[in-house]
Write a structure and sequence with these properties.
Distance between the termini: 32 Å
Number of helices: 4
Oligomer: single chain
Radius of gyration: 16 Å
Helix content: 55-70%
Length: 92
């Protein structure tokens, strides 16, 4: 985020503009991580919550822009969700 501001939203090499969307995604992800930490603390339920955030934030923005949910995120998300469901889920 800092480099986006310092470089005035332009690529260092080619000088093409960089969308503010990337900064929004970074800030949103950080805020959701903070919310998860505040909700669960440093306990086991924090892990599946952070994994869920890591999948849902990019899926939300990709779906909003392109109306697709790419297999590169959905399949690993399903596998992670299934695996984490055996360890207590988001109880806490």
């Amino acid at each position: 985020m800092l480099s986006w501001v310092v470089l005035r939203a332009r690529c260092r090499n080619c000088k093409k503009p960089i969308s503010a969307r990337y900064v929004v995604v970074e800030i949103l992800t950080g805020l959701l991580f903070l919310a998860c930490y505040q909700r669960f603390g440093v306990e086991w339920p924090l892990v599946p919550a952070l994994v869920l955030v890591c999948f849902l934030v990019p899926l939300t923005f990709i779906d909003a822009a392109q109306w697709i949910l790419p297999f590169e995120l959905t399949i690993p998300g399903i596998v992670c969700g299934f695996a984490l469901s055996f360890y207590g889920g988001l109880e806490g």
